[in-house]
């Protein structure tokens, strides 16, 4: 479907955009030191889809006719490329297999409804034909919430949300907007910005993910300190189910029994199709700056960030990288070619030398970014408050230069994963949220658990972490890990990933702060929400979808568990 933008079928983002290390002189030595690998020059510009063979779709004629009757003949397709694009999300294991032409179970058909009535008709047709239906937003989830069960014998219909778009209503008096669930981040922000508003929701996957996907996975954007997680942002919604439509009006808050809104948020397609969402929106800030600080150690940095949260300084985001992540981001600095950049590089070297003379161990230092928004007066005042706290914890303020650079580069990092996969390196992330009292324990335990897993595999691996999304009671810890894949990449990946997830749960963290559950995290649900909690969820899904038609095997009772790989 030409009007709907999709990512490249074999990896992240747009064709023709790559991670490039040729202009980053410290990157290859960094990889050599931490992974023991000599990087090869990038070989893969694209993977020709025509080189693969996709089995024909065995879509039954009666179901095709019913889907066409529900929508239109040019919005029902069994095209091989469409089926492959819609057959997976963006988890590293899915991309590893897809990029090697190993597609797994594909949907038989992709359908593009344009209205709520069409969505309802598609759902009824699927139930009638005993077919499975899986809503598709941008395909960016990394929890395997789109992956299909290879043993599923019934036809599978991928329901692409890409035509259910638009800012349908903007209540400027209340700061509320009703927006089509299929709208991609950039389109949505552009439409709101043109009228002086913003949603303020910027996940790292912003460029390719949708509002409905954010709702269905309980997402969080990097500016959640100010704008809230998607669960705070969403005030109402429409959810189309095979048996009828649930309409939740936008209200600031309500006392109407258990919250249906909360129940649909994070439901990953298992309770119906979210077709539009009422969100709270904010006027565009007059001023926005990102300031960088360098802390001597991780514990100084965590204490400082906790103090900022306790002091309730209104920041837009606060983020600290631990020493490993700080070293990694320094390794991705571009070669200084202009005179201005050469002067800046020299100044940075001199600064590090100065810090060493003052007793800093520069291998331990941790970079932090804090974003401030508001009127000029607000921003200045908040900057002063944070600068005082940072200074009390031994930080050096680096100013707005590195902050602006971080802001510009923030949506480029995902391209690194494709580059690493091409080098046979599996690079992925695991994230949790925990009370402040558990943050340092979790940080340290995850490092130990990951190292044990690397040792078990006999591999040199790398792990790094940042803290972001501060709350009154705690924060999110986000780990990135990498290792060179061997003969059994799925088992190797499962070994490292399960070690990290188990360390979260054993040490007082949750399973995921914002990536959802899918099939990837489902095995830990009992440990996190208790056996009775899982029983309740299972009862809800079974009772509301007795034929198991709506994205089955996600959140609980995963059909493809990570444990199966071990
Ligand atoms: C590089 C990278 C960075 C990321 N960074 C972040 C981040 O910072 N914050 C964050 O929260 N997440 C992040 N993610 C994860 C991912 O982007 C989110 O889970 C996102 O919310 C998924 O949205 P999507 O539109 O791509 O949904 P999809 O991946 O298409 O679908 C995800 C799930 O939601 C269901 N679904 C989708 N749309 C609907 C709908 N309208 N109604 C019902 N169910 C629906 C699908 O069936 C599926 O179960 C990142 C992912 C990658 C690859």
TrEMBL record:
Reported cofactor(s): FAD
Keywords: FAD, Flavoprotein, Oxidoreductase
Biological processes, Gene Ontology terms: lipid biosynthetic process
Protein origin, superkingdom: Bacteria
Protein family membership: Belongs to the FAD-binding oxidoreductase/transferase type 4 family.
InterPro entries, per database record: Alkyl-DHAP_Synthase, FAD-bd_oxidored_4_C, FAD-bd_PCMH, FAD-bd_PCMH-like_sf, FAD-bd_PCMH_sub1, FAD-bd_PCMH_sub2, FAD-linked_Oxase-like_C, Oxid_FAD_bind_N
One GO MF term attached to the UniProt entry: oxidoreductase activity
One Pfam family from the record: FAD_binding_4
PANTHER family (alphabetical): ALKYLDIHYDROXYACETONEPHOSPHATE SYNTHASE, PEROXISOMAL (PTHR46568)
Xref: SUPFAM superfamilies: FAD-binding/transporter-associated domain-like, FAD-linked oxidases, C-terminal domain
The name this protein goes by in its record: FAD-binding oxidoreductase
Stretches assigned to the FAD-binding PCMH-type domain: 103-284
Site (Important for enzyme activity) residue list: 319
Organism: Propioniciclava sinopodophylli
